[in-house]
Amino acid sequence: MMTETITLGKAVNHGLRRALENDPKVVIMGEDVGKLGGVFRITDGLQKDFGEDRIIDTPLAEAGIVGTAVGLAIRGYRPVCEIQFDGFVFPAYNQIVAQVAKMHYRSNGAVRLPLVIRIPYGGGIGAVEHHSESPEAYFAHTPGLKVVTCADPVDAYSMIQQSITSDDPIIFLEPKRRYWEKGTVDLDAPLADAFPLHAARVTRPGTDATILAYGPMVRVALDAATAAAEDGRDLEVIDLRTLSPVDYPVIVESVRRTGRAVVVHEAPGNLGMGAELAARITEQCFYHLEAPVLRVTGYDVPYPAARLEEEYLPDLDRVLDAVDRAFGW
User: Fold this and answer.
1) What φ, ψ does residue 62 adopt, rounded to 5°?
2) Taking the CB of the first residue and of the last residue of the chain, which one, N or C, has fewer CB atoms within 10 A?
3) Of these residues, 131, 141, 198, 265, which one is catalytic?
4) Angle, CA 237 vertex, CA 269 and CA 118 arms, to 5°
5) Is 141 annotated in the active site?
6) pLDDT tens track for 34-90
7) Cα–Cα distance between 160 and 156 in angstroms, integer?
8) Cα(111)–Cα(75) distance, rounded to whole angstroms?
9) How far is CA 43 from the centre of its chain?
């Protein structure tokens, strides 16, 4: 067993490397992914070791990147597209929702698109406009796409490999503010032994309330649970991991047991993941709830300038305030 303490970004890099080694049909495409290794250096060293035919620097044309990947996937390749920043995905949005999401259905099951679209997303890095978006709801709302997001290096390493081996098109969201956080990863672990890709994980068991989070907000939820414990409240934290399909049985079991639920995400609240989760929990846990399902989200405004982003992003105090309100009912 070879374990290393590595960052989340390096874990994605190792996962991509292993996928490239295991399957010669895996190719990586994107802006500056080759010699530069990507703007976050996630593909660092891969072009040197696997060549320009498999690690392909593309023009600045997201629609072209995804459109080319659709053709490659139809021809039997497993392309991995990197969208440099979250806000840059929108030129490719038509390709994703009109082609990637529908090809399998349109062909009556004859064509599969084993395609992964990697998107660094979320705020917290002091970036300029179009570099701190949270577009997950657009994709989770689209039938035919699967949407996953990692929150720590262990999941980053296994989930990118699982996504690449999947025959379904997957939007792979990487929480950029967590790229530099470290964890211990077993780089020799068989992929078959990894936690299932489309399963939610209870990252902290508890009995008094359930906190639901994913991607960059899992760390915030865990910190809130630690702080709440000082007041005698035992919070359960669930990392959703997959936003489409959502693993509702894990969520429902938890909320029926705790009686309270708070959903945390960076994206604006209006029609976000929290709204769907609150509706489903209310439907399935109505007689177990001691309080309404509450949401802690970004505000319904465009992502602000860097000097204001800490006012915008959900933080420890906002999560604890929602927990207090849930107990106040």
Assistant:
1) -60, -40
2) N
3) 131
4) 60
5) no
6) 999 999 999 999 999 999 999 999 999 999 999 999 999 999 999 999 999 999 999
7) 6
8) 10
9) 18
